[in-house]
Recover the amino acids of this structure.
């Protein structure tokens, strides 16, 4: 049986055979995808450390994601960089042994406000990194937009009659009733 370990001086992965085989250790070179495969086995879920103030949902900010993945990538000889070039935000993982790389990018929208542009860059860095590494992170700030609309509640006959009375008294409108509740054909006919 063979075991794989990282040589502390060269950083290369070494396959060692069990003592019963008495063979000299072999040095193997992994390609970028094999290194990524080993790295991903060490990656857990990213910690949700920030809150979207509009949706009051937690999400993992860019720093939390980088704190989770970068040390593991580096341990496997992979360098993470996130440049902005030609109006695109890139996330690139480079194999430091041979320069092989893979990347993800998103085109920046045309924004003239520097603060909004900085926010878009940070947002795109987060999403290209999550996408490129297939990380388990919930898209909390985009989550609500992608959800199917909730079904409207229905009204019992008593509550419908109370709503009709409120409409007659001028405290409620037919439009509000239709916007808030799913009405039966019979209830619609009484409006």
């Amino acid at each position: 049986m063979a075991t794989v370990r990282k040589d502390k001086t060269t950083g290369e992965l070494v396959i060692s055979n069990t003592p019963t085989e008495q063979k000299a250790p072999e040095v193997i070179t992994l390609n970028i995808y094999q290194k990524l495969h080993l790295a991903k086995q060490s990656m857990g879920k990213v910690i949700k450390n920030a809150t979207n103030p509009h949706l009051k949902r937690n999400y993992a900010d860019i720093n939390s994601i980088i704190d989770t993945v970068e040390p593991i990538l580096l341990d496997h000889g992979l360098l993470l960089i996130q440049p902005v070039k030609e109006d695109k935000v890139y996330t690139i993982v480079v194999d430091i042994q041979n320069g092989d790389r893979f990347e993800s990018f998103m085109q920046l929208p045309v924004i003239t406000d520097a603060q909004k542009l900085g926010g878009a860059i940070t947002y795109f860095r987060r999403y290209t990194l999550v996408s490129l590494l297939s990380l388990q992170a919930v898209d909390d700030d985009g989550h609500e937009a992608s959800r199917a609309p909730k079904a409207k509640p229905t009204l019992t006959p008593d509550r419908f009659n109370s709503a009709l009375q409120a409409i007659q008294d001028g405290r409620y409108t037919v439009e509000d009733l239709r916007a808030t509740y799913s009405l039966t054909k019979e209830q619609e006919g009484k409006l």
